């Protein structure tokens, strides 16, 4: 490893990953192309999503600013747990009873407000 | 209790409550929650398997009706795949990937926590179907159309199954996203892609498949629910084939989601207990990339008998899978050759994984040929094949990882003798249960039936006895965990002489994973590099 590369990595963290991801995407494209030619069916298009995801990830990894050190983070996040329970209730209620949808919606709203407060408090601490 | 000095620190450091644990944002605690929940679902789904094997011990109907049997195998299969192996694989990654790449936290910890709650909610929703009038979902873990529509399977239970699967898979998806982004964004400054440990590479491949294929299943479950209530979504034969395409686009990659992380865990175990550097690291990375792409290109081999997919393409890609799989095997064996192998419990489970998965893998190649698939499709041969890959393979890989990393997670060693006994009992149970199924299937015994012809009786009895032996092996493992946590033997930071960064921190690791500086990272085995450098330096 060259000294320049080393100091760059130390300062910014590794920005790599683009190469392997793009190579991976190419492989996905070849296989998807083969399937489309072979089958001619629309379901071959499903397969393209893998390549698209890899290309997007690779590009984002290049463009996004390097992450800093560990971020300020609450030790626990009760609203997230409530949000999870709320979503489960609301979705299960589609079939198990409308009252569950209502309970779930209330829980989601309650959790969302609490979560916003929690995130604002975290942001304040970060400053 | 004597001595105020002992009391003072306890009073100043309150014990974390249940809420601190359930809502903790630390990736290690989230992973522990997923692991505990997945163990719970494993035991529940395993109990259903025991009921099934009890019913199948003799021809005729003994304990359950045909419909109840349908519920049992549906919930067993769905529980093991959606609620146990997939989340357990992701839990390993959620805990160890940040440690292996020198990250203090996981990317988007709240998203991972939400993933856990959705997964748990989904699992409980699935199982709540048993409390409804018509019982739980009863249309196999794939919920094939038209069996799964509301005219063939009426009732809320099947709806809850569909919703539960969607939620559980969405939860796993969120966890997978956080692991993938952690690998891409939060690696330590000198941890380049080609210095990542093998386990982390397998998790990268796994989570890529999660992101590419899991959303498709969530959509499929949404469409299935719409079909059940609004109708006309999957109409006629074309609708049925369309559903199968969408389902298997998820259904095949998920098999590799339940396999790659355990290959990674086994690779870590094999390198550590062979006292050697991993053989063929770069070749393994390239083969993993090929493996991942190919595994997403073979979903149509589940549909050979429909004659509505290009069988040549899917047969070709399915056969090609043997190449990267063979490379992984060569790398694992090459690592062992010339090493000073130490046969501790994790190594035994790793070798069990390598040998038993081979049986599942080789029979997979056989089934990749459409003419053979026509013969064995829908028979017990398939059941034997995927249980050799997922139970005798992946579960052994998981147990290799659990025995290997247990000291790191808990700070205590598992009992060696009990571990070895449970290993041999599980080997005996797995082979006694699943090997006879190859013969049953090849002779034409159909799967998913509660009753069968009397000529299949002897081999079924053997398989049922084997299931009991597996249950004993699982109980021995659980007893080992319980005893080891109750009467702790301190592990120290690096009890095995590990090669990757997780062994450079305390056991269990602190909240931000590492205190002080990381060791220099110049390869995928930084601790081995450090040891070798120290040995090379004159005293």
What helical percentage do the residues of chain B reach?
55-70%
Assembly status: heterodimer
Radius of gyration of chain B: 23 Å
| Main sheet overview of chain A | none
- Low-confidence parts of chain B lasting 5 or more residues at pLDDT below 50? 1-11
What low-confidence regions of chain A span 5 or more consecutive residues with pLDDT below 50? 1-13
Give an account of the 3D structure.
The complex is a heterodimer of chains A (127) and B (539). Chain A is mostly helical and 127 residues long. Chain A is built from five helices and no strands. In chain A, α4 runs antiparallel to α5 (98-126). The longest helix of chain A has 29 residues, at 98-126. The relative contact order of chain A is 0.09. The model of chain A is unreliable at 1-13 (pLDDT under 50). With 539 residues, chain B is mainly alpha-helical. Chain B is built from 19 helices and no strands. Chain B is globular. The chains are: A mainly alpha (127), B mainly alpha (539). Chains A and B meet through α1, α2, α3 and α4 of A and α2, α5, α6, α7 and α8 of B.
């Amino acid at each position: 490893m060259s000294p320049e590369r080393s100091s760059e990595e130390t300062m910014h963290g590794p920005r790599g990953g683009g190469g392997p991801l793009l190579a991976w995407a190419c492989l996905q494209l070849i296989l998807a192309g083969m399937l489309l030619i072979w089958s001619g069916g629309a379901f071959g298009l499903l397969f393209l999503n893998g390549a698209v995801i890899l290309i997007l990830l690779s590009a984002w990894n290049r463009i996004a600013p390097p992450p800093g050190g560990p971020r300020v983070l609450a030790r626990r996040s009760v609203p997230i747990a409530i949000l999870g329970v709320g979503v489960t209730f609301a979705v299960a209620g589609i079939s198990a009873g409308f009252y569950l949808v209502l309970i779930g919606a209330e829980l989601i709203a309650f959790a969302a407000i609490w979560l916003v407060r929690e995130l604002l408090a975290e942001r304040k601490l970060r400053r | 209790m004597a001595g105020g000095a002992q009391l003072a620190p306890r009073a100043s450091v309150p014990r974390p409550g249940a809420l601190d644990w359930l809502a903790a944002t630390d990736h290690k605690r989230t992973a522990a929650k997923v692991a505990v929940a997945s163990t719970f679902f494993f035991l529940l789904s395993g109990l259903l398997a025991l009921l099934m094997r009890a019913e199948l011990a003799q021809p005729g109907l003994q304990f359950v009706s045909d419909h109840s049997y349908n519920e049992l195998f549906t919930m067993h299969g769905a529980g093991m795949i959606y609620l146990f192996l997939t989340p357990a694989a992701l839990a390993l990654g959620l805990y160890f990937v940040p440690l292996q790449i020198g990250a203090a936290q996981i990317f988007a910890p709240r998203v991972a926590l939400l993933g856990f709650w959705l997964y748990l909610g989904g699992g409980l929703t699935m199982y709540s179907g048993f409390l409804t009038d018509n019982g739980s979902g009863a249309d196999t873990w794939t919920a094939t159309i038209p069996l799964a529509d509301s005219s063939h399977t009426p009732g809320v239970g099947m709806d809850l199954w569909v919703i539960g699967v969607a939620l559980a898979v969405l939860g796993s998806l969120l966890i997978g996203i956080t692991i993938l982004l952690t690998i891409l964004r939060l690696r330590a400054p000198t941890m380049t892609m080609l210095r990542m440990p093998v386990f982390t590479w397998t998790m990268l491949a796994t989570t890529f498949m999660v992101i590419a294929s899991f959303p498709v299943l969530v959509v499929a479950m949404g469409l299935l629910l719409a079909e059940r209530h609004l109708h006309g979504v999957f109409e006629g034969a074309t609708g049925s084939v369309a559903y199968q395409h969408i389902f298997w686009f998820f259904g095949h990659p998920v098999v590799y989601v339940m396999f790659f992380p355990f290959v990674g865990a086994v690779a870590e175990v094999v390198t550590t207990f062979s006292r050697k550097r991993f053989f063929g690291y770069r070749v393994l990375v390239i083969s993993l990339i090929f493996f991942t792409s190919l595994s997403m290109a073979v979903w149509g081999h589940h549909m050979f008998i429909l004659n509505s997919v290009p069988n040549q393409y899917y047969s070709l890609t399915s056969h090609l899978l043997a190449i990267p799989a063979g490379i992984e095997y060569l790398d694992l064996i090459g690592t062992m050759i010339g090493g000073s192998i130490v046969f501790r419990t994790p190594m035994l489970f790793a070798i069990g994984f390598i040998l038993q998965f081979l049986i599942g893998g080789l029979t997979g190649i056989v089934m990749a040929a459409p003419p053979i698939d026509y013969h064995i499709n829908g028979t017990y041969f398939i059941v034997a094949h995927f249980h050799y890959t997922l139970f005798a393979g992946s579960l052994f890989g998981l147990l290799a990882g659990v025995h290997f990393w247990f000291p790191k997670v808990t700070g205590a060693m598992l009992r060696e003798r009990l571990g070895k006994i449970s290993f041999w009992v599980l080997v005996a149970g797995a082979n006694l249960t699943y090997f006879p199924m190859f013969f049953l299937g090849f002779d034409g015994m159909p799967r998913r039936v509660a009753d069968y012809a009397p000529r299949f009786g002897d081999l079924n009895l053997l398989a049922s006895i084997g299931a009991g032996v597996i249950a004993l092996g699982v109980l021995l493992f659980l007893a080992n965990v319980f005893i080891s946590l109750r009467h702790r033997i301190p592990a120290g930071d690096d009890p095995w002489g590990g090669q990757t960064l997780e062994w450079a921190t305390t056991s269990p690791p602190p909240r931000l994973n590492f205190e002080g500086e990381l060791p220099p990272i110049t390869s995928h085995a930084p601790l081995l590099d450090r040891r070798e450098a120290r040995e090379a330096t004159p005293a």
